């Protein structure tokens, strides 16, 4: 069989039959429109990102396979949450906030690269990564959401493959993001205050005595000046 691999870089969920995809597939005996649709279905969870795609064309059988190269799950989660990095204090300090729809979308996108045999299993894998990163999901720590997932709270959304938010859900998400930001800022301030207190507590007695002597010396200066002025009179 004559197989040819075509390597492309497309915008997630927004591939078209124009360059570079159309010309690269032209004359291969396959339905370019269908290829475009299949690529967009596989990459819709990566909207706005440059995605490496391989189209393996069998010109004799007039068939094709599509392989999508994906960034790590952690990178996709941080992109969705608008976070530059994980919290470093998972379970205490939130790194960002996501909705279950974001998790389902990433699980759908990474189907071929994950171990989970079902969508729910893949969603569980991704929530596990959220736990490690310190991400909040549905306004709460991901560890709590893991328990809800196992009890079936999100089964209907997973079954429906729900990946888009309603206006109301989007509003709730914005609120959850702001809450996560405030919590992170409060923890950072508390940590900075604790460091300052620890540094103050570990200052040496000599340093403390020197500070006290300095303060006394400053207090004596005005009195000495007054005595000198009296003598001159």
Characterise this structure:
The chain has 233 residues and is of the alpha+beta class. It has 2 domains: 3-68, 2-Layer Sandwich (Ribosomal protein L11, N-terminal domain); 73-190, Arc Repressor Mutant, subunit A (Orthogonal Bundle), CATH 1.10.10. It has helices spanning 21-25, 32-43, 73-81, 100-109, 119-133, 142-150, 155-159, 167-201, 205-232; strands at residues 3-11, 50-58, 63-68, 96-98, 135-137, 140-141. The strands form 2 sheets. Strands 1-2-3 form a 3-stranded antiparallel beta sheet. It has a 3-stranded mixed beta sheet with strand order 4-5-6. β5 (135-137) and β6 form a beta hairpin. α4 (100-109) packs across α5 and α5 (119-133) runs antiparallel to α6. The mean pLDDT is 84.
